[in-house]
Each structure stands twice: as structure tokens, then as C-alpha cells.
Write the C-alpha cells for this entry.
Amino acid sequence: MTDGDGMTDGDGMNDGAHDAHGTDREDRAPDPESAAASRRMLLSTLATVAVLLVGMGLGLLIASMLHSDDAESDAAPATDSAAVGFAQDMIRHHEQGVEMAAIELENGTDPQVRSMAFDILTTQSNEIGQMQSWLTRWGQPLINPSSPMAWMGHEMSDSAASSGTPHDHGTSDGHEHGTSDEHSAAHDGAGMAPEDAMPAVPYAEPPMPGMATPAEMDRLRSTQGADTDVYFLQLMLRHHEGGIEMMEYATDPDQVSEDYVRALAAGMQRTQTKEIAILTAMIGERGAQPLPMN
């Protein structure tokens, strides 16, 4: 039946049913704001737990690193100890090696030699930073106020270091190495033709074995191209060989009690021993000869 408004009785009943069901659903439906609040609380809780876990992990990691790096931080080594002397003298030794590598990267042209120089520069710069941090924590100066390698029982000759006379390298001029014929065959030890070679310059004995003298460093700076490549290899080979004795001494538990110092010294020794073999081969491949130890 249709009423005056055109609505059937069925329609009215249906509307009533819909209204009843709608009201019932509204009563049962969760509050959107309440659900959103619950989700926010859950996410906040999970985030807090995650932060705590990450924080604990980082704390344990940092504590482990600090413990392994400085197991005896409360007992800094004595001023005249081998640990302090090794760090001070090896920083000085490394700094010259880094300078040599930088000169090769600037003036050299051989990709293999430049790659070796880059590896040495980055590795030794990192090691310098580690040793400087030790000395700072120990309250010790970065520069050794005593004679170089005195912590090993070595004393460099003061007269040789101050006289300005050449150190005996097996030649009359004290600067070049080997005979004149050998220098001609090896391009005067640095890829240079004999007529272009720099004149011999008297110089003091280097402060530590393997280190280049000021005259040798000046000569390296003055070279270009293949001359730089070969002379860098020769100087760096001797430089590496000269530092091995200090590294070996610093790995001895009877001399150095700090395990982290011994670990770094051992790592240096392994790396430089491998590089010595590579440097020797590279020098031979370029028709030159290694320099005798100074």
C-alpha cells in the first residue's frame, strides 16, 4: 500500500530496520580516535624498546673497543718506556714516509708507483693518528725529547749528526750509492741521465735508520715523471727497511707491556714486510738498484 507521500508500508518497515541495525552497528564500532591512540601507543612502545636495544648494543660495542684499545688506561707507560719511545719515533719516521708519498703523487706519473704511494700515505697517516692519540692520553709529548731510539738502547752518533759530513754509503762522495758505472746503468739511481744528475751534497747522518736526509728529500722534490717514480721507490724501500727494527722491538712483550701497542707494531711489520718485497721488484723492473742502508 502507498500512503499519501508515496511511501509504501514496506519502505517504512525497511527504514525502521535499517535505523535499528545502524544504531546497533554504531554501538558496536570502535571509536576511531581510541583506535588511533592505541596504535600510537604501540608504535611508541616499540620505538622505545628499539632505541634501548640499539643504545645497549652501542654501549657494549664502545666499551669493548675502549677495553681492547686501552686495557691499562689507568696505568700510563713511563716517559722513558719503550711504548712511549716507539710512538714518538715512529710518528717521526712515518711523517717522512707520508711526505715522500705525497711528493710521488704530485710529481710522479707511473700508475703503479702512484698507487703504492697512495696506499702508504693513507696507511701511515692513520697509524700516525693512532700513536698521537696514545701520547695525548698518556700525557706525553708528540716529539721525542731524547735521542732517537734511545728507548731501544741505541744512540745515534752526535758527531756524525752535527758535523754535516757524509755518511759512508760506499762511495767517495757519500751521497750516491754504488759505482759510477752502476749509476749510469740505473740512470743515476733515480731515472736520471748522469749529465742531468744533481751534484753530491754533504749531509748529516739521518736521525733513524732508513730515513732520507734533507739533501735527498730536496732531490726528490726536484724530480719529475719517471725520475720521481724510481727515486721514490728507492727511498721508500730503504725507509721501510730502516723502520723494521723498531717495529720488531715494539712487538716484544718483554719490552712493551701494552698489548694494543704491540698489536699496531706487529701490523706495521706485516704490512711493510710485504711492501718491501713489492718495492724491490718494482725497482728491478725499472732498471734501477736498491739503495744501501744508511
